[in-house]
Specification:
This protein is an alpha/beta fold. It contains 14 helices and 14 strands. The protein folds into 2 domains: about 200 residues, Nucleotidyltransferase, domain 5, CATH 3.30.420.40; about 180 residues, Nucleotidyltransferase, domain 5 (2-Layer Sandwich). Helix 6 runs antiparallel to helix 11 and helix 8 crosses helix 11.
């Protein structure tokens, strides 16, 4: 049995999710012990928004933020240890996803070489130095170096937690971007990809339409006040990303201010409430369309298990039920998995597998040439334990 900590900061920029887990049987079992979420200070969140959304950034601001986030992730680890009562010496490793600043999965060629790339900050060396615990970080790049899209990576955990031999199920995570993992009953085939926007478009719309006084629609309450304009929604769903065959991944670089401007331009004459309802509906509508377009009828899921911050958006959840009436829509809490910490758990599992010399990527999901051992390792003075594992 090994205790590991997973750290996740998603594209919604809500803060740092830190999860303490126990992993057994060479990574075949994982148990959630506890977790905390540490919000970003406003000044940090504002800088991260600038770094993530602007194409031109101050390189000194970028590299210093990389270091600062390493310290903030370390603070989250220390807070988690304090609240859980766990001791540092009992923690095998920390697995940190970091904060995505740019995700460019397209196989763009330069001098004949693919330059697909994903950039997460939150220096793993700083975390290792601060905590005295070995750190695995920077999980996405190895998959992309092997021709993959670097995402989604959580299907590994989904298959461990939710694979059911008797029925098809779908795991949906709604963060800034939404992604699905379809687990089939018969042959165990996994279909997984980013469906498109999660919270990112509705968050942008709220911030824009109320002049920055609010940054998200709590519970989807404002979206419920408006009417969805189906003609606009249909135009939006004609976007090439939604029609592209998997494997595929995306980010806020695609579903950004320009994408929001396109939607707003289609609805110049409608009310604020109707506009927000229509923008918000893009998320559940694109999720449903992805399932119908890319999942064969005999593999179509019976149940949709939802995690991530979007699970608390009642508008999303009710629209998912409307668009997918043949499916039962539930929170991952039904299965004892806290929806706020599933992704952090997933990276803890990946870090453990890296420690064990095992791959974590699924080539059929990411499009990589082969399975990959993911992440970079930051050792401590006691780093030898990372290579001399005893079971």
């Amino acid at each position: 049995m090994s205790k590991c900590i997973g750290l996740m900061s998603g594209t919604s920029l809500d803060g740092i999710d830190a999860a303490l887990v126990e992993i057994e049987k060479n990574g075949e079992q994982i148990r959630f012990i506890g977790g905390i979420t540490v919000p970003f200070p406003d000044v940090v969140k504002n800088e991260l928004i600038k770094l993530a959304y602007r194409n031109t950034v101050d390189k000194e601001v970028l590299v210093r933020m990389d270091c600062l986030l390493g310290h903030l992730f370390s603070d989250a680890v220390e807070a988690l240890l304090k609240t859980s009562g766990a001791e540092k010496q009992d923690i095998l490793l920390i697995a940190s996803h970091g904060q995505t600043i740019g995700h460019y999965p397209a196989q763009k060629k330069q001098l004949g070489h693919s330059t697909a790339f994903s950039f997460q900050i939150g220096d793993g060396d700083v975390i290792a130095a601060r905590t005295g615990i070995p750190v695995v970080s920077d999980f996405r790049r190895r998959d992309m170096a092997a021709g993959g899209t670097g995402a989604p990576l959580i299907p590994l955990l989904d298959s461990l937690l939710f694979q059911n031999g008797s029925r098809n199920v779908c795991c949906l995570n709604i963060g800034g971007i939404a992604n699905i993992t379809v687990l089939t009953a018969g042959n165990g085939r996994i279909v997984a990809f980013d469906t498109g926007p999660g919270n990112c478009l509705s968050d942008l719309a709220v911030s824009r339409l109320v002049d920055g006084r609010m940054c998200f629609d709590k519970g989807g309450e404002m979206a419920f006040r408006g009417k969805v304009h189906d003609d606009i929604l249909e135009r939006v769903l004609d976007d090439p990303y939604f029609l592209k065959l998997p494997p595929k991944s995306t980010g806020r670089e695609y579903f950004n201010e320009d994408f929001l401007d396109f939607i707003l331009g289609l609805g110049r004459d409608i009310s604020f409430e109707d506009m927000l309802a229509t923008v918000s509906c893009v998320t559940p509508a694109s999720i449903a369309a992805a399932l119908r377009n890319f999942v064969p009828e005999d593999e179509f899921p019976e149940e949709l298990i939802v995690s991530g911050g979007g699970v608390r958006n009642r508008f999303f959840m009710e629209k998912l039920e409307d668009f997918l009436p043949e499916m039962v829509v539930v929170s991952s809490e039904k299965y004892g998995v806290d929806p706020d910490f599933k992704e952090a758990m997933g990276f803890a599992l990946m870090g453990f597998r890296t420690f064990s010399g095992l791959p974590s990527s699924i080539p059929s999901v990411t499009g990589a040439d082969s399975e990959q051992i993911l992440g970079k390792v930051s050792l401590t003075g006691n780093g030898s334990r990372f290579f001399n594992r005893t079971t």
